[in-house]
Amino acid sequence: MSRKGGGPGCNSLFLLVFLSVISIIIILAGAIALIIGFGISGKHSISVRTLTSAGNLGQDGILSCTFEPDIKLGDIVIQWLKEGVVGSVHEFRKGKDELADQDEMFRGRTSVFTDQVIVGNASLRLRNVQLADAGTYQCSIATSKGKGQAQLDYKTGAFSVPEVNVDPNGSSVWESLRCAAPRWFPRPTVAWASQLEPGANVTEASNTSFQLDPENVTMMVVSVLYNVTVNNTYSCTIENSIAKATGDIKVTGASLSPVRLPRPCEGVGRGAGPEEGGPGRRDHPEPLRLADLSLRPKDDLSSGTASPPLPRSW
Asked: Does domain 45-157+297-303 have CATH number 2.130.10.10?
């Protein structure tokens, strides 16, 4: 009598084992999904906002960044990175600076407003602004509430408020006006305007010259306007890709007086810390305001929590 290799009982056992294995796999997959879900549910993306700004060569600049406040200072991590730079720009962890990984080009030049961190101010002070500081920066924040990041485009150049006076080289008192500004880069354009002739091209009656400084970087701008009339107000506007500044002068029959008209800045942020002469309020960076000077970045404001990553992670 021959023996057959398997029967209904064997097949049933095999099917039972197979179904048991499938069930175990499904249960394990569900458990893993729950674990991941619980882990993610405890964190969320926080809002981080940056303000596009420009730096004035040789002076201190502010890269503005704010986030959702967190009173747990020890849980706050601020990390500033620059696209194309291997090391960090600045890091702040557990209430103090962590600069071991700071790139050489930023050594001794950066700081945050420590007393304003818990109220959501992650702005970076950059000392002695250089042309090489221009570029794309990323402000990354981690708190007990979650993480977030935002980028800003930082431009560098030179800009200053022009002064308008009677041209000392003119042959008569009211013949010409002189508009001069000591530091500009890149090379700007100069435009004149007349209050009594708002649509007229007054600039045609002017002559503008540029003089490089000894280091051949910034330049002095001098523009002379001819055919000046009395009882009129003239404006001299100097503008490049970074900034726009205006000086005004009022000419009367008996006197001539410079006029400083307040003009709000566009696209500049600063941390209003004690060093900046900021107000006592410690919530967010105050907008920088300089009479007659307004910066003109390409983009006014960028914000978000999912900006394209730079070649560095937490």
From this structure: no
